[in-house]
Amino acid sequence: MNGQIKxxxxxxxxxxxxxxxMDILLRDDDINYxxxxxxxxxxxxxxxxxxxxxxxxxxxxxxxxxEFCKTGTNEETIGKNSRLVDYLKERIKENKVEIILHGYSxxxxxxxxxxxxxxxxxxxxxxxxxxxxxxxxxGIKINSFVPPHxxxxxxxxxxxxxxxxxxxxxxxxxxxxxxxxxxxxxAYLKRLIFSITHKKILKGxxxxxxxxxxxxxxxxxxFNFLPELFTPQELFNFIKCVKEAKGIFCLSVHYWQLxxxxxxxxxxxxxxxxxxxxxxFCFASEIFKVRA
Length: 292
Known about the structure:
Strands 1, 2, 5, 10, 11 and 12 form a six-stranded parallel β-sheet that branches. A four-stranded mixed β-sheet has the order 6-7-9-8. It is of the alpha/beta class. Helix content is 42%, strand content 16%.
């Protein structure tokens, strides 16, 4: 598998080197038992009406009520929300939505987020159970993982890899958290160099907009949607910068973040993207092909 990943990674680099084609991913986090179809439709109805619309929903299979300020102490399974499940199945059938595993319960422990734990066995069991549950519920194959709060430990990276998943997140590459290795530090340096080179347009944010390999995981950084910091034109300018660098752009959004003002700015950004030639919105599985 390691050899397969390396060959795929090299092939992708060569293809992008001689092509102006650009892939764009939209990732919406935190869909869970407490989410309503109306919330998702309000946030994304306008987008689903667009030609070629594809959206990556990062789903929490067994959500912690405490984490989202809800009443109760027991974890709630998303399958109990039949209206939401039916809504998601319909969007999947229309080929507008792909499901990504977003942790297990999203519960934090003290100052440590869920997948910052160093308990490998616990993390492996959470991934296996969450992945199997969502695959059976929606009749799909899950190939990607988003850690809650984009935070993951060395143990978390290993277990994501062991369970044949790829990583869609801007992971913290602090060696004290993810461990030392040539691949990890090489990835850190690439991100650092790209971010410093484009410091002005990024306003101090860090990202490397292309595939990297971490512990045999294919990983892609995501850029948080920050409408209070970036105007649609400023975000579009960065997207053009990524296209010139022959990269992949992933925008991370939360449906609960998309009030009328934020949604309007996202729609305006989308319209600007449509002015670019040779771009497409895609699913994570279309980027992470080998381990799907």
